Amino acid sequence: xxxxxxxxxxxxxxxxxxxxxxxxxxxxxxxxxxxxxxxxxxxxxxxxxxxxxxxxxxxxxxxxxxxxxxxxxxxxxxxxxxxxxxxxxxxxxxxxxxxxxxxxxxxxxxxxxxxxxxxxxxxxxxxxxxxxxxxxxxxxxxxxxxxxxxxxxxxxxxxxxxxxxxxxxxxxxxxxxxxxxxxxxxxxxxxxxxxxxxxxxxxxxxxxxxxxxxxxxxxxxxxxxxxxxxxxxxxxxxxxxxxxxxxxxxxxxxxxxxxxxxxxxxxxxxxxxxxxxxxxxxxxxxxxxxxxxxxxxxxxxxxxx
Length: 305
Fold this sequence. Notes:
Layout: H1 2-18, H2 36-39, E1 68-78, E2 83-97, E3 101-115, H3 117-123, E4 133-135, E5 139-148, E6 156-164, E7 180-194, E8 197-214, E9 217-233, E10 236-245, E11 257-266, E12 270-281, E13 285-294
Antiparallel strand pairs: 1-2, 1-13, 2-3, 3-4, 3-5, 5-6, 6-7, 7-8, 8-9, 9-10, 10-11, 11-12, 12-13
């Protein structure tokens, strides 16, 4: 009899564990008096998913001559566990005029992820863990304008203006469903070259702006920055850099700092790359991005002077 009682107790305990829900969400802090499902989500990089308010790439200060078709997959995981997934990403960059002006569309086509209730409590998500889910992501539209080609004592300088649209949904904290935009100067300067080796320093500086759902802070913004070292040897490129932005009100962990490193193997038409990214402050994810670029020459030319 005791044996059967013990077995029944174990079965009930297992069933309770498998079907357990969070005890209560009554302690969640509402940030505005809107739809309950996401009134407690704080719109800030440290309190959302890994792609909600991305830190832009530093780039190298050059619009360049090539078109760009990039297909990549980004595998991410949260520090301490509880949130991991993968994204399928598409980039299309088209120089309207070589070495002068380009337009780019970046699209997080699909994001397949799983967020446990423990992390959902941190993000203040009402919906309980439904298991693995698939959501669409945001579209980012960017323009690039070359303002200076590198000289002996001057770097390459390119202006970047980007708009993050609201194509993604907010309910699972993956995206904001609110617009954001950033504007910055991308700079790059070759600092040495010897045979097949060359070294370059890239940097960015500008402004990052995003809309929030807080009634007392409808918009947050602050300086955007980045610094990167790049080493090239024949067809191989290696780069390591730090980048981030700083919200002005310190609202919801809004000052992310990232470490990024990438390895690129170049050839005439295709580049193959792998990039590692991890957060140092107010960004609690690490990711590995693997992809391929097809970069045929743009047909529109402007003579460099």
